[in-house]
Recover the amino acids of this structure.
């Protein structure tokens, strides 16, 4: 398929022109700017880099890390559909701009990048929280918490289960060596699901107001060395001392991974060869 045709199809699917999210903030920097598609900078498309005319395979990923780059470069004439146009570390470094050497390698192997962030988070089929809930067998009841004009979080339920049994189940489903857990109630039944960075005080308040006993999210313990993020995480935990919501954290990567695997279905329906690129380092981090 022609890259231009596929990018146009994806832009339409995700309503890129209508979405107000700025994909260039902190991602496009002096070090990598000369690799970036001009129309991406102008918010005309979510095609971040354009390195081939034709696409033989579509790859998906959560972030663009060193491991993802090495695995992606086993292919040529590929489109990498990523949820985040950032490198990522589950430590004080957090999100980092994609290194120019990574983008140079992608040029060498004719690999282009398409970014599906907020419009994927809130997508009716491939939304990150929706896919996480389905992955974990949680029956969805309603959506909430506006994110660029559409809800990104959801409320669901399971049969009444002990905190320990459900946490163990989630750990196995997400293929994580550990979870970040805070137990405040013995049983789980009504769950709020927020893939990725869900450690937000206002979101937690809504979780409580909707009568949920548990929040399943990515980030419970925030390690990024960014003052306002650390302060937000502190306020999140201070509030929960009053609300007493069970917290289950599967990491940012671990909880957004199901959506990028599920998105392969979109490409399969188009008849395009596709593959999810795993970052085993992020998946297995403790």
């Amino acid at each position: 398929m022609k890259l231009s045709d596929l990018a146009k199809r994806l832009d339409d699917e995700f309503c890129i022109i209508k979405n107000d999210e700025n994909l260039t903030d902190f991602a496009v920097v002096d070090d990598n700017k000369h690799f970036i598609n001009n129309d991406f900078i102008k918010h005309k498309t979510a095609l971040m880099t354009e390195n081939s005319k034709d696409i033989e395979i579509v790859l998906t990923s959560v972030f663009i890390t060193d491991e993802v780059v090495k695995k992606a470069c086993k292919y040529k004439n590929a489109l990498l559909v990523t949820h985040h146009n950032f490198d990522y570390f589950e430590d004080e470094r957090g999100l980092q701009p994609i290194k120019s050497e990574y983008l140079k390698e992608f040029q060498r192997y004719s690999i282009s990048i398409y970014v599906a962030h907020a419009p994927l988070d809130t997508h009716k089929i491939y939304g990150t929280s929706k896919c996480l809930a389905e992955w974990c067998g949680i029956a969805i009841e309603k959506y909430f918490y506006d994110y660029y004009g559409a809800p990104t979080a959801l409320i669901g339920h399971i049969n009444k289960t002990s905190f320990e049994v459900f946490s163990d189940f989630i750990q196995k489903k997400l293929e994580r060596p550990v979870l970040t857990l805070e137990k405040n109630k013995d049983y789980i039944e009504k769950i709020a699901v927020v893939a990725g960075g869900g450690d937000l005080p206002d979101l937690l308040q809504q979780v409580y107001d909707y009568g949920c006993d548990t929040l399943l999210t990515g980030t419970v313990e925030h390690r990024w060395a960014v003052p306002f993020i650390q302060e937000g995480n502190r306020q999140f935990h201070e509030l929960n001392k009053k609300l007493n919501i069970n917290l289950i954290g599967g990491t940012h990567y671990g909880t957004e991974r199901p959506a990028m695997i599920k998105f392969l279905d979109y490409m399969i329906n188009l008849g395009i060869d596709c593959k999810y690129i795993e970052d085993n380092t992020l998946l297995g981090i403790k």
